[in-house]
Design brief:
With 763 residues, the protein is mainly beta. It has a domain of 114 residues: Immunoglobulin-like. Helix content is 4%, strand content 46%. A four-stranded antiparallel sheet has the order 1-60-59-58, with no helix packed on it. Strand 56 and strand 57 form a beta hairpin. The longest helix is centred in the N-terminal third of the chain and has 20 residues.
């Protein structure tokens, strides 16, 4: 009994300890998604739930309890970016078609069955599914190359009907349905039909073209009461009845669909059937549920709309709460545990993306929308970078590629700097960064002074001044501005577009730029005396430990050691060499064929590298070893096109901003602390159902961690550079340790810091 009491007290203490100190949200190696649900465009009504798609993300609403669930690869889906959904009532299953042609069947009992045949098929056509139609055990998919017939019960492709025009090009099948025992297929210009049974539909000669269809591009067609309703690009709907076309029977139609015997016309901010429903938004889709006498609609911003069929003024809307404003992520920066995210973009010209600032702190999102920023007198677009005041993380600046520079105070829009009220020229502001004197440095390309800085005036506003030495017109688009962490007189500019690819400037620590040094180049010589030349330099970051610059290019990464020496004629960059295993002692350059879009450095000085098309890599400290390579195929990563990566320095969570949204991965490295004052472990206690890694956090730099039992027997030992050690919960024999209390004994290599953490393991 005494032992049990001690264990109880230990558990109680450790639970309190974890609640007080733990900052991890998931276990090491686990993922979580951070998606916006502000663009709902598709719904499907199941027996107990209503499913919806918003920006490729799937979620559901309980019909009775209004409980909202979200789904992703983390929850068992086979892919990302759901494109179309349809509930098959007779099969008790939700059909999910993904953007890449992959398919899941999500059954009412929550089992998920994958059908990857279309995704895996080698075909020179898009694989997005335009429409689905269920008929007698088979699902017919309208696709950009024809029709795919799926046997639902056997979960296999039963047949494929390719549609080609007279030139041999695929015809895009927009709609498919069965009427009067015939299968009808609508393409952009034609409608075809063939008997649904009894003929070889794979032989295109067995398909008959409907004659005399109205001229104009087709969008889709539906069947209702043995008639065909054809929607065309003009917004007009023609009706085919008794082999005769009634042209332009309806006009100003944006979409049509039939649900449980009800024909719906979606018009500008309205839905028409036997009644007319009006809205202050544009409905995307409508479904009638005759079991509950409810009309369900897809509302872009409000989510799933529930309307009583018998009282259309009775309306409620539901969607997941608390996410970012949009899934269009361009740039992210962590300051402490506060993440700043902006939406936008640029290349040679602005993208025209609505500007939003999204802030993630303490697991809560705060969104500053384009509409909020309009109070400054501008409809802002294309935010591309963030710089946060080290003295106040609620005070920050955001640059816009087309609208100048924006200042925020208390996380709210405060002031707008532009060509009309400052020395900013052309309003194309690229990258921004604060130095340790709280000067804000900014790139303003394609101007006589492509580097400028902003100083705070006594009145609180900022005066923007040019660096006259940076006077070349040959810098067009920039991707990073870096301030040297050893000597802040040196600034570096990574140039994405321009005659020059890299710029270094030494301002000598004075505002008088008459003695400034400037270096500009379009190429480097590497350690093998080979010319390194890349079409575009995409990103850059400085290694805090070595001081080297890591530059990402369209030909892989390069390293600039001692970058303050680039002014010297004998300067050499370093290409990262890895053995090529060809038996000739040769070497290749790491990721030399990849477009490197972003680089960040974790607490163990390892390099996370994002690419355009190949996912994300975690490289060793010197870049010669690949530790992880995450792709959308082998991980929950939302897309292989990574725009930006940022790491929470307090807990090591790695955030990936992709072209399809934001997702994070719990890494195993955090920045080192100055002392062991905040030592703790996660999870703690380690319960029987937990089989992941155990993190010991709050370490000082260069620490040795030894795990022992209470009798002092060594169980595990490791050395870490950063602020977190990882124990796999196993002993020297490789087996999970027995239940009990274990001690993490932590010491710095120089012996100046010491600490102990108790970890309770329960089996």
């Amino acid at each position: 009994m005494k032992y049990s009491k001690n264990i109880f007290l230990t558990i109680s203490f450790l639970i309190f300890y974890v609640c007080t100190y733990s900052q991890m949200n998931v276990g090491i190696g686990k993922w979580r998604v951070h998606l916006a649900y502000n663009s709902t465009n598709g719904i499907a009504v199941a027996r107990d739930k209503v499913f919806a798609i918003s920006g490729g993300a799937l979620y559901s609403l309980g019909k009775e309890d209004n409980f909202i669930e979200t789904y992703s690869k983390i929850d068992g889906l086979s892919d990302n970016n759901a494109f179309i959904i349809s509930y098959i009532d007779k099969e008790h299953v939700l059909f999910i078609g993904y953007e890449n042609g992959n398919i899941d069947f999500f059954a009412d009992n929550n089992t998920i069955t994958n059908l990857p045949d279309i995704y895996n098929k080698n075909i020179s056509a898009d694989k997005k599914i335009n429409e689905v139609f269920y008929y007698e055990g088979y699902l017919y998919l309208a696709m950009p190359f024809g029709i795919v017939k799926i046997d639902v019960s056997r979960n296999e492709v039963a047949d494929t009907y390719y549609f080609r025009d007279s030139n041999g090009m695929y015809m895009n099948a927009l709609s498919v349905f069965v009427m009067d025992n015939n299968l009808f297929v609508t393409t952009a210009e034609k409608i075809f039909k063939a008997p649904v049974k009894g003929v070889n539909l794979a032989n295109f000669a067995n398909w008959q073209e409907l004659k005399d269809i109205p001229a104009g591009g087709n969008i889709k067609s539906v069947t209702h009461e043995s008639k065909i309703y054809l929607l065309q690009t003009s917004g007009k709907v023609s009706v085919w009845s008794d082999n005769t076309w009634i042209t332009e029977a309806y006009s100003d139609v944006m979409n049509i669909n039939v649900s449980n015997g009800v024909l719906f016309f979606i018009r500008d901010k309205s839905i028409e059937f036997s009644q007319t429903l009006t809205f202050d938004f544009q409905p995307q889709m409508v479904v009638y549920d005759n079991n509950s006498s409810k009309i369900w609609i897809a509302s872009p911003n409000d989510g799933i709309g529930k309307i009583s069929y018998n009282n259309v003024n009775e309306r409620d809307y539901y969607k997941p709460k608390g996410g970012p404003a949009v899934n269009d992520i361009w740039r992210m920066r962590f300051v402490g545990n506060k993440l700043f995210v902006v939406s936008g973009g640029r290349w040679d010209v602005p993208y025209g993306t609505p500007a939003n600032v999204m802030i993630f702190e303490n697991n809560q999102w705060t969104n500053v929308l384009q509409s909020d920023i309009q109070q400054l007198g501008v409809t802002a677009h294309d935010f591309v970078d963030i710089a946060v005041d080290a003295a106040d993380n609620k005070h920050f600046f955001v640059s816009s590629w087309g609208n100048g520079l924006f200042e925020f105070k208390d996380d709210k829009p405060y002031r707008w700097y532009h060509s009309g009220n400052s020395n900013i020229e052309n309003n194309l502001v690229g990258n921004i960064a604060f130095d340790n004197k709280r000067k804000l440095w900014l790139s303003n390309p394609m101007t006589p002074s492509f580097i400028k800085y902003a100083e705070e005036l006594p009145a609180g506003d900022y005066a923007i001044k040019p660096v006259t030495a940076a006077s070349s017109q040959s810098v067009w688009t920039t991707s990073d501005i870096l301030i040297d962490n050893i000597d802040q007189n040196y600034k570096y500019l990574v140039v994405t577009r321009g005659h020059f690819k890299f710029v270094a400037i030494n301002d000598k620590g004075t505002d008088d730029t008459g003695d400034d040094e400037i270096f500009m180049t379009s190429q480097f010589i590497n350690q093998d005396d080979r010319v390194f030349r890349a079409e575009h330099y995409m990103c850059g970051i400085q290694d805090k430990i070595t001081g080297s610059l890591w530059i990402g290019t369209t030909s892989g990464p390069i390293v600039l050691p001692n970058p303050r020496n680039v002014f010297r004629s004998d300067y050499r960059c370093q290409s990262i060499k890895i053995p090529n295993n060809n038996g000739e002692d040769g070497a290749d350059y790491m990721l030399q064929n990849e477009v490197i879009s972003t680089i960040v450095i974790d607490g163990n000085n390892r390099k996370w590298i994002g690419t355009e098309g190949s996912g994300a890599y975690l490289l060793s400290e010197d870049g010669t070893e690949t530790i992880f390579h995450f792709t959308a195929d082998n991980s929950p990563l939302l897309s292989n096109w990574i725009r930006t990566i940022s790491i929470n320095p307090d807990n090591g969570e790695v955030f990936f901003g992709t072209t399809k949204g934001l997702i994070s991965y719990q890494g195993d490295a955090v920045e080192a602390k100055e002392s062991f004052g905040s030592l703790h472990a996660f999870p703690n206690p380690v319960r029987p159902d937990y089989h992941g890694d155990i993190a010991i956090k709050g370490l000082a730099e260069n620490s040795v961690v030894k795990i022992t039992d209470v009798h002092g027997r060594l169980v595990f030992e490791t050395f870490v550079k950063g602020g977190m050690a990882v124990w796999h919960g196993k002993g020297i024999d490789g087996k999970r340790v027995a239940s009990g209390v274990y001690l993490a004994i932590c010491n710095t290599m120089d012996g100046s810091q010491h600490g102990i953490v108790k970890i309770l393991v329960i089996n």
